[in-house]
Every structure is written in C-alpha cells, then in structure tokens.
Amino acid sequence: MQKVKLLYVEDEPFLGKIVKESLESRSFEVHMVADGDKVMAALEKFQPEICVLDVMLPNRDGFSLAEEIRRLHPSLPIVFVTAKSQTEDVLQGFATGGNDYLRKPFSMEELIVRLHNLLALTQGRSQASNLPGGAVEIGKYSFFPLKYELRLGEKNRKLSAREADLLKILIEHRNFTVARKDILLKVWGDDNFFNSRNLDVYITKLRDYLSDDPAIEIITIKGVGYHFVTG
Predict the structure, then answer these.
(1) 2-60 pLDDT per residue, tens
(2) Architecture of the domain delimited by 4-128
C-alpha cells in the first residue's frame, strides 16, 4: 500500500513522537517540523498530501502559516490540532484555511478517522474542480454548469450566470467550508458591503432552489463562510 505523505507541525517533543509513530504505523509517511519558521521550506521540499498543524508554535503561529499554505496550495487539506479551544479560535482556524479542527487532548483513533475522511473528500473535490459541461449530481438534482440549468426529475430551472457561478463554487467545496470573502472575490470581483448583501440574497435563492432535497444544506458559518452539504 502506498503511504500518504503527511506534514506534521508540532513543537511538543513527547506528543510529537507518539503521534508520528502512530501515524507511521497507519500507512502515513510523516515529516515532522517543530519550528514555525521552517514549515514552508519543509512543505515545498516534502510536498505532503495533507498537513496536521499545531497553532501555538515557536517563531510563527499556525493560523498565519495556514493562510500562506492555502495561498500556495489551495487544495491541500489542513487539520489544526491545538489546546486553543475557544469558539473564536475554532472560527479563526476555519477562516485562515483549515479544513478541520481537533482539540487537545485527542485520541489517535479520532485523528486517523478525520484524516481519512478529509483525504477522501479532497479526492472527490478535485474531481469536481473543473466541472464538465455535462451533468453534475447534487443529491437528487442534476446541475448543468455550461447551460446554467438545475434539474429535478422533469423540473428544469434556468439559473442566472451569478447563481450558476455561486453554485459551482459550493460544489467545488462540497463538505468543506468556503470563505465568504473568497466567494465574493470570485463571483463579484469585490468584497464590498453592497456585494456582501447580494451574496446573502443569492444564498437564500439557492437554498430555495435546492429545498426539495432535505439532505442538501448550505450552512452559514458565522464570520467565516458557508459549508455545502449534499448528503
């Protein structure tokens, strides 16, 4: 079995050793870094498939690292593992590019499950990253991105260009949180107040269009963005 390359950023030597050895016994190839200043160089040299990142590190915090990693590697899954457990810390973790957030102390079993889930979701998202002109399945619906059409059985709804662009972004990030600012910049080209209110209106419209399938949800993550769940 081919091992999954994982970059592990942790400055606690004892915890780091335990986690690293456990991950290596579960088909992961682990490169561990303890200093925040050395993370980006290790990232480019090791080219990981997933990253486990502590927040409180020497010289540079995990949140700022996640922002830089996300700019350079938009699809690389990032899991925060940290003792910082306040709600605002969790929200900041998602806002800076994290895909998941695990509070210390944690069980290895939970970490392994989260890692495998993220890897599976990322593989599915990459397949949808360049949406074809044909149908893309969203629960009970079929979406035709080039035709701007959303179908449910015999019902056919024509979408506006912006509605279609917004839905495409949500599909590309299905089961992930996509930042509100990223949506505004990609669809409207500016994250000003007027466009932000427009986004609220368009999200409401899409929720209505997709309401015949109760498994589909567009969840608002306050202060961060949206989480698109398709069942």
Answers:
(1) 789 999 999 999 999 999 999 999 889 999 999 999 999 999 999 999 999 999 999 99
(2) 3-Layer(aba) Sandwich (3.40)
How far is 193 from 88, CA to CA, in rounded Å?
A: 23
Q: Convert the pLDDT of each residue in 136-182 to its tens digit.
A: 889 999 999 888 899 999 899 999 989 999 999 898 888 778 888 88
CATH topology classification for 136-229: Arc Repressor Mutant, subunit A (1.10.10)
Supply the pTM of this predicted model.
Answer: 0.57
DSSP E strands, the chain: 4-9, 28-33, 50-53, 78-82, 100-103, 136-138, 141-144, 149-152, 155-158, 177-179, 217-221, 225-229
* Beta-bridge partners for 52: 8, 79
Residues 8 and 33: beta-carbon distance below 8 Å: yes
What is the Cα–Cα distance from 219 to 221, expressed in whole angstroms? 6
3-class SS at 57?
coil
Chain position carrying tokens 């069980």: 107
Residue pair 111/102 in contact by the 8 Å Cβ criterion: yes
Round to whole Å and give the CA distance between 82 and 85.
7
Give the three-class secondary structure for 161. helix
Residues of the chain within CATH 1.10.10.10 domain(s) are 136-229
Per-residue b/e over 180-219, b at no fewer than 16 CB within 10 Å?
bebbbeebbeeeeeeeeeebeebbebbeebbeeeeebbbe
